[in-house]
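Researcher: Let's do a round of design. I'm pasting the structure tokens now; please hold your answer until I've finished.
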């Protein structure tokens, strides 16, 4: 159920993200719809209908998840990864788009500061320029934090995969080959069942080490995307107000007041975006600490190896006893 739980949480997150804002348009849910299989469509339909109707999710829908098959569980893991990747992509693209808008807005305001002679207008424009420059610096730092979080966690996952390949796969193959050779293939099926159970169980343990982090990362990146879109819209309104001031016959006081009003929507941007940057750094620390959970799981696997080998030894022993009995009977 762990993988299903993370998929469900990520799905709810993705649907809520699609309802947050209309601009800039984020098509990542469309991509998910295009790429996932019927299982994904069934999950999404259940959540969308429940959300649209404002009612609790039907018991039948929950039962279908609770009673999922191994194949379905595998599909939900892939589905969860698709959503997490899409949420990250949406946050990254929103940051890049906002940065481009900020640069364009700074150019516009900077140009107007040199053209305006009225002190009130010039003061308002300089305040706008200073705010935009401050926000730009914080957005740049936030982009680094978001990408660093994703890159380092991905690197850790690859590291874990390599460890598993070396520590588990080679040992598993050696044990199965041993049974195959010493039982002439007779004990293969029973040995494979034992090894499959072990691998499945410990794979679940490893996934549990990382799945909550995956949801936390996606939640964090959605919060980033929401904040970026909020301040992106505020920046567009500020730029429009600046252009209105210099291109129309607004009096100086109205011009100043209009710019100051638009600026107030950006007052909280530096602090909010800095907070998100720090949250990303803390989340990265949590993610790197997941190494402790993974390390413990690998250690537990090592400790269980001898008992598994004894089970395989028993399969071999029973086969050899049977062969000896048959040989005795024949002689």
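Researcher: That's everything. Go ahead.
Model: Designed sequence:
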């Amino acid at each position: 159920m762990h993988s299903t739980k993370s998929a469900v949480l990520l799905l709810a997150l993705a649907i809520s993200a699609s309802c947050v804002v209309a601009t800039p348009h984020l098509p990542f849910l469309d991509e998910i719809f295009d790429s996932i299989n019927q299982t994904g469509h069934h999950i999404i339909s259940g959540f969308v209908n429940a959300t649209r109707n404002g009612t609790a999710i039907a018991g039948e829908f929950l039962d279908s998840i609770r009673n999922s098959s191994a194949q379905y569980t595998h599909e939900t893991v892939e589905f969860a990864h698709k959503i997490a990747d899409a949420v990250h992509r949406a946050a990254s693209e929103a940051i890049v788009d906002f940065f481009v808008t900020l640069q364009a807005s700074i150019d516009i305001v900077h140009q107007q500061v040199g053209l305006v002679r009225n002190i009130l207008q010039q003061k308002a424009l300089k305040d706008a320029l200073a705010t935009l420059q401050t926000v730009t610096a914080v957005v740049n730092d936030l982009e680094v934090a978001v990408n660093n979080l994703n890159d380092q966690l991905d690197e850790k996952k690859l590291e874990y995969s390599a460890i598993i390949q070396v520590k588990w796969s080679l040992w598993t193959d050696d044990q199965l080959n041993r049974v195959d050779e010493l039982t002439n293939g007779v004990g293969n099926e029973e040995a494979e069942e034992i090894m499959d159970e072990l691998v499945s169980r410990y794979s679940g343990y490893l996934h549990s080490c990382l799945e909550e982090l995956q949801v936390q990362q996606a939640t964090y990146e959605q919060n980033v995307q929401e904040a970026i879109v909020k301040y992106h819209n505020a920046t567009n309104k500020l730029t429009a107000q600046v252009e209105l001031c210099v291109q129309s016959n607004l009096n100086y006081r109205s011009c100043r007041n209009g710019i100051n009003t638009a600026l107030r929507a950006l007052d909280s941007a530096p602090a909010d975006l800095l907070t998100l940057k720090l949250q990303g750094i803390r989340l990265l620390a949590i993610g790197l600490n997941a190494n402790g959970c993974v390390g413990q799981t690998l250690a537990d696997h090592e400790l269980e190896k001898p008992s598994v080998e004894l089970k395989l030894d028993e399969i071999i022993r029973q086969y050899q006893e049977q062969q000896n009995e048959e040989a005795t009977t024949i002689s």
